[in-house]
Amino acid sequence: MAATLPDDLRADVQTLWDYHDMRHALRPADVGIGLGSHDLGVATFAAKLFHAGMFPLIVFTGANAPTTLERFPCGEAVHYREHALELGVPDDAILVEPEARNTGDNITLTRVLLETRSISAESVILISRPYQQRRAFATCKKLWPEVDVICASRPLPLDEYIKSIGDVDRVINMLVGDTQRITVHAERGFAVPQEVPTEVDRAYGRLVKAGYQERLLD
Predict the structure, then answer these.
(1) CB 93 within 8 A of CB 53
(2) Which residues cross the membrane (predicted)?
(3) Domain 25-152, what fold?
(4) Per the confidence metrics, is the pTM higher than 0.85?
(5) CB 83 within 8 A of CB 47
(6) Residue range 63-85, pLDDT digits in tens
(7) Which ranges of 117-167 does DSSP label H, i.e. alpha helix?
(8) Strands of the 148-152 sheet, one edge to the other
């Protein structure tokens, strides 16, 4: 698995990377929501924000995708919790939502969990992989429109993030797939519409033609 971004793809990959970064300014919120995935760095950053006083409660949400079953056999949210505990987050500051299988589930089931615990959340920080920020934001605005939502990810440059994952093709495929989902999910009613600038659409098209199609929807 290559961990270095090829020079001929760099500009297009960087364009998509920059597009998905919502560049939200962090401010304290009622709840931090760590969206499950293959990237344990989500839990790392959630713990860091907790210790910085950004929220008093973390919800980790996620079951498994085919790509995470081997790494997180007990479920993404369960392993995120274990990692956060190792980083000093108190057990009573963590809730686990272990059933979500997509971003819509992450939002909906977390909201239900909080409501069943009579926990009021007027504001949330969604903590995700860097390239999931825009999709998570659009999904949350559709399914939980009244909440004040901030998106956050580990503040890593593209090359450092690829190095942390160790698989450049995986990162590019995920970026391409998430870019497609911005349009498709809005068309299917799963998310609010987001503008896709021409340069983003062209970069996406070139990467699809270059063979990065593993995460594309039919």
Answers:
(1) no
(2) none
(3) Rossmann fold (3.40.50)
(4) yes
(5) yes
(6) 977 677 677 777 899 999 999 99
(7) 133-143, 158-165
(8) 94-97, 58-61, 31-35, 123-127, 148-152
